[in-house]
Amino acid sequence: MTRRWPGFWVSERAAPPLLLLDLTGAMAAGVMLGPYPLSPIEVAGTLAGRPPDPQAAIVLWNIRLPRVVAAALIGAALAAAGAAYQTIFRNPLVAPDILGVSQGAGFGAVLGILLGLPVLAIQMMGFAFGIATIGLVMGLALALRGMGQVLVVVLCGMAVAALAGAGISLVKLLADPDDQLPAITFWLMGSLAGIKQADVAAALPAILAGLVPLIALRWRIGLLSLGDDEARTLGVEAGRLRLLVILAATLLTAAAVSVAGVIGWIGLMVPHMARLVTGPRFDRLLPVALAMGAGLTVLVDAAARSIAVQEVPLGILTAVLGGPLFLWLLARGVRSWAE
Predict the structure, then answer these.
(1) How far apart are CA 76 and CA 89, in angstroms?
(2) Could you tell me the fold of the domain covering 2-331?
(3) I need a labelling partner for 95 at 20 to 30 A (CA). Which of 105, 110, 263, 264 fits?
(4) Helix (H) or strand (E) holding 9
């Protein structure tokens, strides 16, 4: 069956293999591009256990593959979180940081940098503060007796995000301007420089824990876009399901931010791109958003380490790409994503 969406003719049968092909191509490009370029022969030989160049094997196994896998996981996590938030809040302008998770994780990470902690401890602090942020948001909403009201939860998230942002500013003020402040600034702009296999292994359980419920319950989650009353008539406990989705998306966002810093636009932009292929149904949207988010982040990261002598932070490139692309999507007729 072929569906018409703004600007595209897409076959439902052709979409999955095309997306898989695109993701494979993006990851291949991510492995080969960089300050030390690798040829397809070097990559294939190294993966087959017969590296033509020992230096190429070191670069591939210790630098490129961990970085490409991390970029794919982080992009998929942010895209899935964005798609989930936009569905349950029924707002196409919602991003993964709407409830302050990114800001909370950022505050934890920069506090770790200020305290001079090792990299793994900084990542763990970022993740812990991100999870604590959503706990604080839910606690405030519960205290205000607005746990069942989306607007109250979002407003509590905005308030907590403002507090976390103030905390980040205070840490930057107290940081050593010659050593700590540049590290804090670079981290807040998002980067995968220096990523290692241990970093990927540390983030993987949280990302999987966030993705599994979204994938398993994607049919029910899609019903929340119809409204709570309609969802209840179809047998869905809207309040409990929304809380579960928020927790899952929080895990995804906190894990991504703790490893790579704050990377904007992926969670906002990719779900819109995916809807051009799938339409608004969440069960179809989620897998496409996962593939697109992973592929786009891998390509942006490859560009970040290739276009200049000094690596460009991911957050800068995603903003440069995201702003114009988002305007283009609007110009193509994405005025109501539920149509």
Answers:
(1) 20
(2) ABC transporter involved in vitamin B12 uptake, BtuC (1.10.3470)
(3) 110
(4) strand 8-11
